[in-house]
Design goal:
Layout: H1 2-29, H2 34-37, H3 43-55, H4 57-80, E1 83-86, E2 89-94, E3 98-101, E4 106-109, E5 112-126, H5 131-197, H6 203-237, H7 273-294, E6 299-311, E7 323-332, H8 340-406, H9 412-446
Antiparallel strand pairs: 1-5, 2-5, 3-4, 5-6, 6-7
Helix pairs in contact: 3-5, 4-5, 5-6, 5-7, 5-9, 7-8, 8-9
């Protein structure tokens, strides 16, 4: 029966440990804000974000910093508790054979002695003024600051993964269009060269098309390199040590935010990690200043000893006669320390004042960053709509030119020029569409990882 109870207890203990670890893991996972990223309607994007969550080294470093901070808090808490230690001693005393003791010069012949000292010593600084408690509270606020720093790493990572992901999609599509443009230019060069041989075009026309073709080839080479760089960056962010081919969607499957806000409530910046960290820093500095002020006051330490003090001649070590116990209070007050504690108090007060100013600065800077990101988002949204209109116009013009070509009212050169104009308009559309998507990612980052489409933030 006892074995069964022990087994049940161990199973319960292990299950509770796994439940705690799962709760911590789930709490970290919330930093990803997956419901927001799901609004982009791209499962591959979500998959890349999850890979980054599982493998990115920056997240692991941030998590280790949190664990280090937790240990620092526990170390500070340990300083508030009594200290008990054991200091055993075995000693042999040698002296001259004639030793005098006492007022009457009592003679001890052939003096030597073996001493066994086995005490437990304890000390405890009475925290009358609460300075040690304040110091522990300060470390706890530092821990909260590191947690906000960790949340900032999550926001920066997810935003960077999304931005690189969409930049890679844009590069893929732009490269595809540039290659089409290159093929058209090569065909145009053939036609112009043929006309030049027949005396219907000048050598300047041929050289101009050759130069345009070379420029397009140069652009293709640059895009190839740019594509590889984005793939490398994304592989690093998602923690792919093999730097294998990065999976991504096609440009045609990229969804847009249709409900981006025109205005945002300024209180949204309170959720930013840097603003919250600055607020915790004020509390930390306040605790430090108060602790430094109280450190000037006297301290009182309780000290005691309990154990055995035995000798080799006739006294048993663990008998009642060898018992040892004492207790005392030790006051301590620095009469002169060169002004060290006073200047430390002033220093901590200045740090507290600086923390307040840094908080005000972080709030103002956050509001500016949100306003800038919102203005950029609105601008990119308008540009995308205009680029879409221009592309539609160019597509209509191309269809008309195709009809004219079919009935003999336009030649192949004119048709190629209209094809090129339509491709250039499509490239502008690709740029503005992805720029609009990335502007929403930057807006998300600027508001501190909050879903800015939520009506409460408008």
């Amino acid at each position: 029966m006892k074995k069964n109870l022990l087994t049940i207890f161990l199973i319960f203990l292990i299950s509770q440990l796994f439940a705690f670890c799962s709760a911590v893991e789930q709490d970290k996972k919330q930093y990803l804000n997956l419901p927001f990223w799901e609004k982009y309607g791209d499962e591959i994007l979500i998959s890349n974000i999850m890979k980054g969550y599982e493998n990115n080294p920056d997240l692991k470093i941030a998590d280790t910093k949190i664990k280090e901070s937790e240990k620092i808090v526990k170390l500070s808490l340990a300083e508030e508790l009594p200290h008990i230690n054991f200091e055993g001693m075995l000693g042999r005393t040698f002296a001259s054979s004639d030793m005098l003791r006492g007022k009457n010069n009592f003679m001890i012949y052939n003096y030597s002695q073996t001493r066994f000292l086995l005490p437990l010593t304890a000390s405890y600084e009475i925290d009358i003024w609460g300075k040690n408690r304040l110091r522990t509270k300060s470390f706890k606020e530092s821990e909260k600051m590191l947690k906000e720093d960790e949340r900032a790493v999550y926001i920066a990572l997810t935003s960077a993964i999304a931005a690189d992901y969409y930049n890679l999609i844009k590069t893929d599509k732009t490269l595809e269009l540039q290659k089409k443009l290159l093929e058209l230019n090569k065909r145009l060069l053939e036609l112009i060269s043929s006309k030049e041989k027949n005396g219907l075009a000048t050598i300047d026309n041929v050289l101009e098309v050759k130069e345009e073709t070379a420029q397009i080839e140069l652009s293709v080479n640059n895009l190839e390199a740019k594509k590889e760089i984005f793939e490398n960056q994304l592989s690093y962010l998602i923690g792919d040590k093999l730097f294998s081919k990065v999976e991504r969607n096609n440009f045609e499957n990229v969804n847009l935010f249709e409900n981006t806000p025109e205005e945002l409530n300024s209180s949204i910046v309170i959720n930013r990690p840097d603003v919250k960290s600055s607020a915790f820093n004020i509390l930390r500095a306040d605790y430090e200043a108060k602790s430094a002020k109280r450190d000037i006051l006297p301290s009182f330490t309780i000290m005691g000893t309990l154990g055995y003090n035995g000798y080799s001649h006739g006294t048993h070590l663990f008998s009642a006669n060898s018992g040892l116990a004492d207790l005392w209070i030790v006051p301590n007050f620095d009469i002169f320390d060169g002004g060290r504690k006073y200047h430390m108090m002033k220093l901590k007060k200045l740090e507290y004042k600086r923390a307040q100013e840094e908080y005000e600065k972080s709030v103002l800077a956050s509001i500016q960053e949100v306003n800038d990101a919102l203005a950029l988002t609105k601008k990119e949204k308008k540009n995308y709509k205009l680029a879409n209109d221009i592309f539609n116009i160019q597509s209509q013009k191309l269809r008309l030119k195709e009809i004219n070509k079919s009935i003999g009212l336009a030649n192949e050169i004119d048709y190629i020029l209209y094809q090129q104009a339509q491709i250039l308009a499509q490239q502008k559309l690709v740029d503005d569409k992805i720029n609009y998507v990335i502007s929403t990612i930057n807006l998300y980052k600027s508001v501190g990882g909050v879903d800015f489409t939520n009506s409460e933030n408008l």
